[in-house]
Design a protein that fits this description.
Elements lengths: L5 H12 L4 H27 L12 H5 L27 H12 L4 E2 L12 E3 L8 E4 L4 E5 L1 E4 L10 E5 L10 E7 L3 E7 L4 E7 L10 E2 L4 E3 L3
Antiparallel strand pairs: 1-3, 2-5, 3-4, 4-11, 5-10, 6-9, 7-8, 8-9
């Protein structure tokens, strides 16, 4: 019969929970006391009838959660009684790190760069010190746009519905949306994202009909899909 060092395990358990608050410690000790007496009673009954401990069963938490070994009754994967040993999905710290890394990742797409949407109708980045026109699609399907753009075509001073660029299909809002952008220092301009993902300069909201020196796009943010 294999021996089991209960004193060592008990001391390790005690050390692990000693730093917990008083109420939590009390609950833990009550559970330990309950299941310790259950285990003692079970072992005593087995000795009384001359039974030997079963072979192959888990003897530690590591064994219990190990899904890489040979399956069997009392071992992981757990026998469900039908002769099938279904695997249990175990989330590891590596899995959690991967999720956190994907959430923290910032995959920006800069308009006008190779492989990215192109500017339309003569629009361009305003340039230093203002950030370039770029967008990102987050894991929860939110599109964030930022940057400042300009148009040097004087004939567009009073124009409306002037396309700036088109988002790719995976960023389409599913319905047309209106936004307001700060423009030319003291004016406001209308920005539209059509349902097909085309961002357009909708015209001036305040201020005179004037050449478009710059328009801020930082106010544009929307959910993907209908």
């Amino acid at each position: 019969m294999s021996s089991y060092n209960w004193e060592t395990e008990a001391q390790q358990a005690y050390d692990a929970i000693e730093a917990l608050d008083e109420k939590t410690c009390d609950n833990v000790f009550r559970l330990v006391q309950k299941y310790t007496w259950m285990a003692v009673a079970s072992a005593a009954a087995a000795v009384a009838i001359g039974a030997e401990p079963g072979a192959g069963g888990p003897t530690s938490l590591t064994d219990l959660t190990d899904v890489t070994g040979t399956p069997g009754i009392g071992k992981a994967p757990v026998d469900d009684g039908s002769g099938v040993y279904p695997l249990t999905k175990v989330t590891t710290t590596e899995d959690l790190d991967d999720v956190l890394a994907s959430v923290a990742a910032v995959d920006w797409h800069t308009v006008g760069q190779p492989g990215e949407p192109a500017f339309m109708s003569g629009w361009r980045n305003t340039g230093d010190p203002w950030g370039n026109c770029r967008y990102r699609l987050t894991l929860n399907n939110i599109v964030h746009l930022e940057g400042t753009v300009s148009n040097d075509d004087a004939s567009l001073a009073g124009a409306t519905w002037v396309p700036i660029f088109q988002f790719p299909p995976d960023c389409n809002p599913g319905a047309s949306l209106r936004f307001t952008g700060v423009a030319n220092d003291k004016a406001l301009a209308m920005l539209i994202v059509w349902s097909d993902g085309t961002l357009v300069f909708g015209g001036w909201i305040t201020g005179p009909q004037q050449q478009i020196d710059y328009v801020s796009l930082a106010q544009v943010s929307f959910s993907v899909g209908a």
